[in-house]
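In line with agreed milestones, work has continued on tokenised descriptions of protein folds. One protein thus recorded appears below exactly as we store it:

>
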Amino acid sequence: DTLEYKKKQRPLKIRMLDGTVKTVMVDDSKIVSDMLMTICARIGITNYDEYSLVRDMGEEKKEETTGTLRKDKTLLRDDKKMEKLKQKLHTDDELNWLDHGRTLREQGVEETEMLLLRRKFFYSDQNVDSRDPVQLNLLYVQARDDILNGSHPVSFDKACEFAGYQCQIQFGDHNESKHNSGFLE
């Protein structure tokens, strides 16, 4: 038999949906649900029971830009792959959620592995603090990504409306000298 000594505290890298990475010291002997209380408290999220961690398994590197609108590409897809995506409905079931009742070590999560923090349960909009920019940003990015990848299907009209909001968020008010024909290409 082999006996291994490991530190009780370890740094855990958490990637947020907006691409930022936070490193949080966690107690490696605690189960994931207890760790989430610590992680969310450090990040500033109060309703920790609605969030969970996902193993980030070989996800394609997103382009190093902040733009989501281009002629043939967005942050999550390119138009050539859209036909395949339309044939398949994506759900959060495809995500590799960590088990809340087990430790990271029991689930084989290495110390070098980065985990993704996502909202897993949507109990009520009343749980979203409209004054909390961290929580609002995470919720917005997750909703935007779910619309883009097809796990939250919307009508064409709603997609156009959301694209308009995204343009407003990303580029601000229309500036005729800056936002001319071909600007998004």
Notes: The first helix runs from residue 32 to 43. Strands lie at 9-15, 21-27, 51-55, 114-119. Residues 1-58+90-123 form a domain with the Ubiquitin-like (UB roll) fold (CATH 3.10.20.90).
